[in-house]
Amino acid sequence: MVSSPSSAVVTSGAAIRQAFLEFYAAKGHRIEPSASLVPEDPTVLLTIAGMLPFKPIFLGQRPAPSPRATTSQKCIRTNDIENVGRTARHHTFFEMLGNFSFGDYFKKDAIAWAWELSTEVYKLPPERLVVSVFRDDDDAFALWRDHVGIPPHRIIRMGEEDNFWASGPTGPCGPCSEIYYDFHPELGDDHLDLEDDSRFIEFYNLVFMQYNRDTEGHLTPLQNQNIDTGMGLERMAQILQRVPNNYETDLIFPIIETAAQLAGLNYYQSDEKTQVSLKVIGDHVRAVIHMVADGITASNGGRGYVLRRLIRRVVRHGRLLGIEGAFISRVAAAAIQLSETAFPNVREREGAITAELDREEARFLETLERGEKLLTEILAQAQGQISGADAFVLYDTYGFPLELTQEIAEEQGLTVDEAGFAVSMAEQRQRSKDAHETIDLTAQGSLDRLADAIHPTEFIGYDAAVGTSAVAALMVNGVGRETVPAGTEVQVVLAETPFYGESGGQVGDRGYLAGEDFVIRVEDVQKESGFFLHRGRVERGTATVGAQVTAQIDRACRRRVMANHTATHLLQAALKKRVSDDISQAGSLVDFDRLRFDFNCPRALTPEEVQQVEEQVNTWIAESHGAEVAVMPIEAAKAKGAIAMFGEKYGAEVRVIDFPGVSMELCGGTHVGNTAEIGLFKIISETGVASGIRRIEAVAGPAVLAYLNVRDAVVRDLAERFKVQPEELPDRVTALQNNLKTAQKELDTLRAELAVVKSDQLLDQADTIGGVKVLVAELEGVSADALKTAAERLLQKLEDGAVVLGSSPEAGKVSLVAAFGPTALAKKLQAGKFIGGIAQLCGGGGGGRPNLAQAGGRDPEKLPEALATAQQQLQAALG
Length: 879
Ligand code: SER
Fold this sequence. Notes:
Structural class: alpha+beta
Strand content: 15-25%
Bound molecules: serine
Largest sheet: 9 strands, mixed
CATH topology of the largest domain: BirA Bifunctional Protein, domain 2
Shape: elongated
Mean pLDDT: 89
Low-confidence stretches: 1-8, 432-447
Helix content: 25-40%
Number of helices: 25
Number of domains: 6
């Protein structure tokens, strides 16, 4: 016998949501709140699945906060917008319940728990459930059959299209397995066609996330085997509430009833067309309240355009129902009431939601009124089809989106010439392109010309990491462009931006600008004449002036910069406190990985002072001081004692960054909210850069770990090479240095001995001048000491002689020695004077006793000449 779910305890949407989260919490999952509809992921416009906020975790780009998580995620998909209201289960806005494993459990548990939840918590009769697996996934097949006990003919193998899930053309993906509910089990098991929507509804998708797909479609295994599941809340509500479609569940129907009341209608007694309009309103109004609550406003591009289109469709269907005038905020009030328990931000943002919806509705009603007369004429004249040119006039002059004209046409049994519309659109683009003067930014004063055309960029990045803005200008190599294709380096000017432009020593932010169909990676941001020039590269699509983009900074980089910037302020305060109050800033650099602080100080810091400064900064970090940021007149800031940089130009209003009791500086940079966020601070060096200016290089925040890791690797490597423990390294190095010194001494002795031995061979070269045996010679690579020993020994052997030796023991060094016997001395030769004179010829000097003297010089090339001079002088003196 087939049972029905009437015995289910859990039926309301709220109860289904709660039961899901509690079931998985009991299985060790952390309940995470729903992420915003505006995704962090720049490659998608809106959050389209429960897994999206976890994408970086699946890709191994971010650590998982816990190995298991469960969420009820608000999602929007607009790819099936035409089917909304027409089928039982298509939506733009929906909630996806999900359980996730990040490299923790895999198929076996995911399958067992999905079954347990479906049959024991939601109490769906097992005989009403059919499952699908990916074509080749024998594991999943076996688990359903053997572990869960599903008869094999109720496990359907399906192809790539249905059972291989991916969040987009690239990114994490994997085979999946789905659970279907059978509305008509009485039809029997002979022909189980899961694509038959009138019989089956897929309510739970288990994705075995294990690959990453690249731009060329190649699959590479992810680091981990993960689980990503999605259960449609509205679908489960339809099943458990036993209503014919998702719209009649308690999650949506109250909105439909409100709209029906405003139109003076009864939903159940209405014809199908009217019901469709009511369902469209029920669906879209849920979507738009959440979109505005998450900060989206209506515009002509990106997600702003999705919002505009949804609002216009609501207004349009309201008119089809016969509602006169503005009504959307009244329906929105019903939607807010329905959603506020699960999503309190819709109530908090109610004012903003109402204002945005009213404004956009009023604008569109005006458009409709203006266009309606024309539309009536066009419809009356159309013979089967509305021409592309007419559709374009409605679009261009009256603001009717093409889809809207198509819908209206369809209601009258007409079509629209889309190709003709595209031609008119292209002609219009060309006309505006011709009319638009390209701004040549290479020309003198070109930024001023840009300034005439557009407003300076507004910086919103103190509070926001993400913003939506129109592209105000695009430049390639400084020349203005209307469009810039993929693969090109580009500079982008936005009307407003969360990206910090390089200034005050702090580098510009990195991140992404994502348009509806293009993405620009931003590498750097410079400020010029009030414009923020985002420098980067178009990664895909074609960037276009006027397009709406989501500007999103790389938050990890920003966090690192903030840690380094606040640490720079603390460093200045610590230097003043621990070293001297006279210290003042001479310059600074705040980068992602390091900071540099130059300051006026007449002397080097002692190692103890450096250590004290470092300790002071770390103490303030540990003490967890909160930041107070205020904008005030400069005089007020100075009166409060804020540190300003000497010689820096400030405006009348200044921004003051105050960590009360620790540091107060005028600064336009971005800072941590609390010193504790810095974590750790480490000074790397203290050096002199110019007379009276010292420089400290340091790291703060996550960069400390990176720095210490590099140091640690060096120490480990050395310890391994020396085969000692790291702490034994200093002793080991001292011992080595001593060994080296001893070896060097031994080498010197040996060299001297060798020189002496070699010098014996010189005896034959001695000339006899005036009865004195004279020997002048160069020895190769002999130290001063060895040279002296050799000279003494030669003089001894020659008995009454005069010996002059020279050598270059190393590059840039000359050693000389003179040793004179009795006759030479009697002839008034003085070794000291003599060799001093010779040494001068080699760029040096020296002297000593009359009979033996040494000297040195710096020009080995001059040595042969100098020795020749010595020979001549001896000849003259003795001859
Ligand atoms: N990511 C899958 C889906 O959206 C399962 O959550 O269907």
